[in-house]
Every structure is written in structure tokens, then in C-alpha cells.
Amino acid sequence: MTTSDFTTTILVDQTPKEVFDAITNVRGWWSEEIEGDTEKLNDEFTYHYEDVHRCKMKLVDVIPNEIVVWRVMDNYFKFTQDKSEWKDNKIIFEIKQKEGKTQLQLTQLGLTPEYECFDICSNAWTHYIRESLFSLITTGRGMPNAAGKPQTADEEKLSPAS
Asked: For residues 19 and 135, what is the distance between their CA atoms, to the nearest angstrom?
């Protein structure tokens, strides 16, 4: 079965527990401005980047060292006609052993090429997973957004300060 939902994958030497712990440390790889809890079933948190992107996530499936699923409860993009793109999407972090390493696959169910934000959002997820989360897992230090500071080139372009 072929899907057009956005997916990106990394492979690391660390254990599934280390990968799981990094994923649930959302402030360590996505944004320092996350508000709320990000570790266990039914936790809810909010993300915002200036007035460009805001969302509320709920952890709807958590199996330590195997899977974390966020449901997008609410979402706002300043740069799309449909301000609520992402709403009710699921963001799935799957952790598996593969050839003596740990594989992390992120899939956003609903983020498809039909979305106006697809290019910007898929580029951002690729950065956050393949660079920031990868770095947090492998070195203990990620590259999350700092307060009011864009992390990706697309965020820089969308920033009101630009």
C-alpha cells in the first residue's frame, strides 16, 4: 500500500529507550517554548512560533520505547488560506530495532502534497527529525527553536521580523 502522508526516518546506534526519551523531550528538539506535558498518555501541550504557527497536541498513544502518537487538537497557520491545516492529523513516532540499530520513523497522517503547507511543513519536519532530534539522540543536545528565533529557512522567511 502506498501512502502520500509525510514520512521521514533516521537510524541511530542508541537504544529504543534513549530514542523514546528524546522524542518525549519535545523542548529539547522542537521548541523551548512548548507549554504543557509531553511524556505520557493524555498529556497535552502547545507549540507556537510567533504569530506564524500555533498548535495544541495530545498524546493519544504511548508505548514506552515503541511508539508515541500525537493528535493535533487545534492548529493555526498564518501563511495558509485554510488556517486549520493539520487539525485532527496524527503525528506518529515509531521506534523499531533494525540490524542492530534503532530506527525512528515519523509519519504525519494527513500531511499530504494536497496541503498548502506541505512543502514548508515537510521541510521543517525533515529538519527537526533528521537534524535536531537526531542530534539530541546521538549527542544529548538538540537544536530546538529558542524563544522568538526561527530555526529553519522557511521559518525565517515567514517571520514578521524578516
From this structure: 11
